[in-house]
Amino acid sequence: MDNLQATNMLIDVMQSRSTELEIRIGAAEGLGYTGFVIARDALYGVLTSAAYPAALRASAAKALGRTLGACE
Question: Contact 25/8 with Cβ under 8 angstroms?
């Protein structure tokens, strides 16, 4: 599995409503380290959608900040 495949898997887990919230949050956090544009797009999509739980949106916001160099 290459990095892009792993990133796509993390996106799928983060967006999956049938996966436990803690696992989805971990996937969002992991996406903050990938550096792929598709990860940023997916994180932004979760952040801006009220359909996702607030805790997941908060995690997506932090991870998105990390991708943009705002967090360490």
Answer: no
What phi, psi does 34 have (nearest 5°)?
-80, -35
The answer, yes or no, to whether residue 52 has pLDDT greater than 70, is: yes
Residue 25, token pair as written in the block: 């949050």
Q: Compute the residue count for the chain.
A: 72
Residue 64 and residue 44: Cα distance in Å, rounded?
7
Residue pair 56/21 in contact (Cβ under 8 Å)? The answer is yes
The boundaries of the domain holding residue 8 are 3-67
For residue 30, what is the domain's CATH number? 1.25.10.10
Q: What pLDDT was estimated at residue 45?
A: 97
The overall average pLDDT reported for the chain is: 93
pLDDT tens for residues 16-26?
999 999 999 99
Q: What is the dihedral of CA 52, 56, 13, 27, to 10 degrees?
A: 160
